[in-house]
Amino acid sequence: MTNRLAEAKSLYLRKHAENPIDWWPWCDEALATARAQNKPIFLSIGYSSCHWCTVMEGEAFSDIAIADYMNANYLPIKVDREERPDLDSIYMQALQMMSGQGGWPLNIFLSPEDLVPFYAGTYFPVDPRYGRPGFLQVLQALRRYYDTEKAELQQRKALIIESLLTSAVLQDGTTTELEDRELLRQGWETSTGVITSGQSGNSFPMIPYTELALRGTRFNFESRYNGKQVCTQRGLDLALGGIYDHVGGGFHRYTVDPTWTVPHFEKMLYDNGQIVEYLGNLWSAGVQEPAFERAVAGTVQWLKREMTAPEGYFYASQDADSFTEPTAVEPEEGAFYVWSYSEVQELLTPEELTELQQQFTFTPNGNFEGRNVLQRRNSGKLSATLETALSKLFIVRYGVSSESLETFPPACNNQEAKTTNWPGRIPSVTDTKMIVAWNSLMISGLAKAAGVFQQPSYLELAAQAANFILENQFVNGRFQRLNYQGEPTVLAQSEDYALFIKALLDLQACNPENQRWLENAIAIQDEFNEFLWSVELGGYNNTSSDSSQDLIVRERSYVDNATPSANGIAIANLVRLALLTDNLDYLDLAELGLKAFKSVMHRSPQACPSLFTALDWYRNSTLIRSTTEQINSLIPKFLPASVFALTSDLPEGSVGLVCQGLKCLAPAENVEHLLQQVEKSQNRG
């Protein structure tokens, strides 16, 4: 059964024609009826392509109990803002005065005798959540207020009409919002301090801290740190330092000094995935240092050459030690990577050697046990002379040129390393097992780099690994963490779920047309929720409910270590899924997750940067709906709290639609307008 809006010309109004609410269009008859029946008017304004307008239509406006109460106690009116921008403008100012913010759907309550508003809001859920009351509660409370608090009602309306007649007054956000913003600032400042130069001891990438520090630069927090400078310096430390393998690509685990010179030489997949993503983010944030692009490209080449199985997944790690000769009893640390002055002097031309010494740490005495770890002295692009010199070193190490070496087979154990006839040096042993969480970090890094540097081959490599996991890592319908030579085993843990879901969403962001990544993320999230969500405490347990019998306690990962915490990643995923699917159950879980860890965020912000990243997603999440062309133009930009949704049904004369959390902005009229909306949405404050 339809209501009055079935006859409307507006597509937006007709979308509400089958609601059980007895909607009226804005007309004299509606206003007269409200006055005659002494019913306050519920005025709801939106537009056809408004995302959260559509969500509310399918939720609160389709709820029978809400409709019954609405029809009995209010006169409901629907307005298309594109038909009546005058009405929209007046009542939008009222909303901004009452709530401090605007957006659509615009839901406002009016006295019938004078049409002056006395309450307004945007999205109202059916049930209480996100700090918003349930819509039926709102209706009941406001009708009671309208009937019993006449004097206060008149005073309230007088203030509103006075303000409308002078100027719109914007109020501060709610106490909770202010508390969260301050909490986010403290988390950002703490993480920025953690990665600030001048510290002693070993130097670790600490990417969860660097990612939060970089995200926070868009807020312009007052701080003793220059966030952009600190984040840039960390990128330079990584891309120029000895932690990066300037000859063969890939990043070592950490350096044993505060100067980023001498690494502990193992290469871990998880470090490389995170660093590639960070350098991609740094580049997209405007720090387009050539050394970053070179380091990412070299790391991807290393990944393809040495760390990718024929089946498409990525190996776990490479050892720090290697044998100098087949008869050696024990391997030596860094032997595959370091250089003696004499061998390089013989190999290079005088011009190449001179430039190498000028641009890298390379001396007769060396910087590591008489040999040299290469560390760049300056940023910028390397000269052709230096690239030639490094290519010669590559041939010494691998036995052939990088152009002709597509695949360098792994040495799976020491015996293989010593007995294989290697054309160059004996390589380190490679751990060839597949770990879902670590593969996921690399997939995310490749997806980011593919979009930022416009390299489709990076995306292909990421997709191969993701497809392997989707096709091989399920046993009896359950997600598995490991794969040994084609055999999946061990039930997945929280980091596997969280990081793989993130990886799928990152792939989706690179190619919104491919819904397969999103569909699989949803399915795996369902399993994650079923088996690892802590109903009692909130957040996700490390292990599933049916594989914890031998544990004396079920922990929840919230502390970031070499890899980000599962709960930090998982909560951010939930916000992204809510935006992409309109399923606000995900947002419920995100809110519960943040509440579960709020105390530790206050008490120990240095422990949990990924939870602050999740808080950023929760506070500043932005949905961008546009065409393939416009989305492709946005992918390389630094939009750390945004998701993309492809649509061909844009309002006439617009290029895109931006929704801030649970409210939508006016359609963007041109690319410049779209960018302004997106950038402002990323910092709602």
Describe the structure using short key phrases:
685 residues; 5-stranded mixed beta sheet; 4-stranded antiparallel beta sheet
Written description of the protein model:
The chain is α+β, with helices and mostly antiparallel strands. 48% of the residues lie in helices and 10% in strands. The chain is built from 25 helices and 20 strands. The strands form 6 sheets. The protein has a 5-stranded mixed beta sheet with strand order 1-3-2-4-5, with helices on both faces. Strands 13, 14, 15 and 16 form a 4-stranded antiparallel beta sheet that branches. A hairpin with a 7-residue loop joins strand 6 (254-255) and strand 7 (263-264). Helix 21 runs antiparallel to helix 22, helix 21 (566-581) packs parallel to helix 23 and helix 22 packs across helix 23. The chain is elongated, with a radius of gyration of 29 Å.
Please summarize what this structure is.
48% of the residues lie in helices and 10% in strands. With 685 residues, the chain is α+β, with helices and mostly antiparallel strands.
